[in-house]
Amino acid sequence: MTSLAKHLANKFNPLNLLLPSHCLICGKNTDGENLCSDCKEKIRYLEYPLIEHKKNIYFYAITEYKGTMEKSIKILKFRKRKIIAKDLANIIIDFVSKEKMQFEHIGFVPMTPPETRERGFNQTYLMAKEISKANKIPILNGLKKTKETKKQVGLNKRERKENLKSAFKMTDKIEGNIVIIDDVYTTGNTAAEITKAIARKTKSNIYFIALARKIN
Ligand SMILES: [Zn+2]
Fold this sequence. Notes:
The structure is a single chain. The protein has helices spanning about 5-10, 15-20, 35-40, 65-75, 85-100, 115-120, 125-135, 155-165, 190-200, and strands at about 50-55, 55-65, 105-110, 145, 170, 180-185, 205-215. With about 220 residues, the protein is α/β, with parallel strands linked by helices. The strands form 2 sheets. Strands 1-2-7-6-3 form a 5-stranded mixed sheet, sandwiched between helices. Strands 4-5 form a two-stranded antiparallel ribbon. α5 (about 85-100) crosses α7 (about 125-135). The longest helix has 14 residues, at about 85-100. The model has no long low-confidence stretch (mean pLDDT about 90). The chain binds zinc ion (ZN). Zinc ion binds next to α3.
């Protein structure tokens, strides 16, 4: 087939109307993938994903927030290409399987209704939904963000901590290990506040997993 014929055949294949044929980062042709293999290979996995462990709470970050990973998260959050949430969720699915993590609930970092309205969706919920589907584990209800907070950018260390203080509430008591999904781990204030709220309602293990971590 000539390249023009190939191009036209691709163009008029009804499947291609649904599937992207270009890498969302570099624009290279792919066969229905959102990211090409070259861009995927550039993802930097952290050698030590466990950030901290306090009693029954474990904090993890899987990759470095840089290059392909930073671009992918921005494509999701700011260019609002929700289709890429599945690729990002797959990285977490592989991680929990490799670490042999046992859990019975899967949660995400909740947003307040005005925050959800502003973005149009919650990216951590989109990822949690994919993981829930793949692992056949229900989404955790009852974790809510009950306080409107300022953007963390531009606040100093003490203000950031104060800003998120008591911002999250867990309404129901739960049994069984819990995984909470976040996109980017920066200062750890969000992770600390969320896990504190959940820990009031359970003695089971809480695994807070961020897809990427900002490393200075
Ligand atoms: Zn690419």
